[in-house]
Amino acid sequence: MNFGLFFLNFQPENTSSETVLDNMINMVSLVDKDYKNFTTVLVNEHHFSENGIVGAPITAASFLLGLTERLHIGSLNQVITTHHPVRIAEEASLLDQMSDSRFILGLSDCINDFEMDFFKRQRDSQQLQFEACYEIINEAITTNYCQANNDFYNFPRISINPHCLSKENMKQYILASSVSVVEWAAKKALPLTYRWSDSLEDKEILYKRYLDVAANHNIDVSNVEHQFPLLVNLNHDRDVAHQEATTYLASYIAEVYPHLNQQQKMAELISQHAIGTDNDYYESTLNALERTGSKNVLLSFESMKNHDDVVNVINMVNEKIQKNLPSS
Ligand SMILES: Cc1cc2c(cc1C)N(C[C@H](O)[C@H](O)[C@H](O)COP(=O)(O)O)c1[nH]c(=O)[nH]c(=O)c1N2
Ligand SMILES: CCCCCCCCCCCCCCCC=O
């Protein structure tokens, strides 16, 4: 099991964007230097609101890779449907070389109709566009060249420079954004990153669909390692943890889930993430990992107000990982 961090980079009221980004930079630098049992950092992509101020996760990842020596860093959910795939392939290949192959490519379909319209993409052919983009990116990364002649892209064979050194060894993850994307990923045995804000029930449904499609197509997915983003806010006072998480998440829930009962969605997130006291997270998290076939856990501490408390939790997790290592 691998443990890492992920960053949503919400910008709460009365907090500057500099503070939000400095928090991510400082936390990543600290973990890279002092907490060797954390291996990964992934940056979330969100557009056009304070509920995620990073619209260019690969750019953020490149800065963080430049700052660090050990961690594998990348995008949690780089949207490819609304981006030119050659640009993504060039950025990924460049970072692969400049970071000594520490870059991770987390990819996503577009999950926002406004963005599909804004970037002038056809919603009625979205899945096909997503798949076409992926094929170009994957061909470019794994063979150094790509070409396309389909309904979405038409260009001659080009060289992607600099050539990707990792090629098929570059870690790729697919955000489990829809049943059709999950079914497509299963046929390719590509690992999933679950959407942190999906209910556990929805994540489990997607995981079971993944297994069914793989079985029906005789695809061996037994060694595929899915990722589980987990919000963490631990406090000896459970009410403080719940209140901090509620304050941090409320605006995002209102933006992304306007049709849902806001209190019910908040209560679901709090119960299904590591939010409460030290006694409130272990069994529920183990259960969630098992129900979703997750082998990697990504932690976000961003809702915790006290920096020292965050470091204490990271230290606790790091020590427990150490104690659980096979050689311990
Ligand atoms: C990051 C992390 C966090 C926790 C753990 C593990 C890891 C890796 N473990 C598991 C614990 O360390 C130990 O493996 C199990 O509790 C089994 O312990 P014994 O073998 O019975 O001593 C753990 N166990 C537990 O009972 N309560 C807890 O809160 C936690 N938290
Ligand atoms: C504070 C939040 C921490 C959530 C992590 C809880 C998940 C624990 C899973 C333990 C599995 C065994 C660990 C194996 C050690 C590394 O390989």
TrEMBL record:
One biological process term in Gene Ontology: bioluminescence
One GO MF term attached to the UniProt entry: alkanal monooxygenase (FMN-linked) activity
Database matches in Gene3D superfamilies: Luciferase-like domain (3.20.20.30)
Keyword set, alphabetical order: Flavoprotein, FMN, Luminescence, Monooxygenase, Oxidoreductase, Photoprotein
Pfam families: Bac_luciferase (PF00296)
Principal EC category: oxidoreductase
InterPro entries: Alkanal_monooxygenase (IPR033924), Bact_Lucif_Oxidored (IPR050766), Bacterial_luciferase_CS (IPR018235), Luciferase-like_dom (IPR011251), Luciferase-like_sf (IPR036661), Luciferase_bac/NFP (IPR002103)
Residue ranges of domain Luciferase-like in the record: 1-284
EC number, as in UniProt: 1.14.14.3
Quaternary structure note: Heterodimer of an alpha and a beta chain.
Listed PANTHER family: BLR5498 PROTEIN, LUCIFERASE-LIKE MONOOXYGENASE
Designated name of the protein: Alkanal monooxygenase
Organism field: Photobacterium phosphoreum
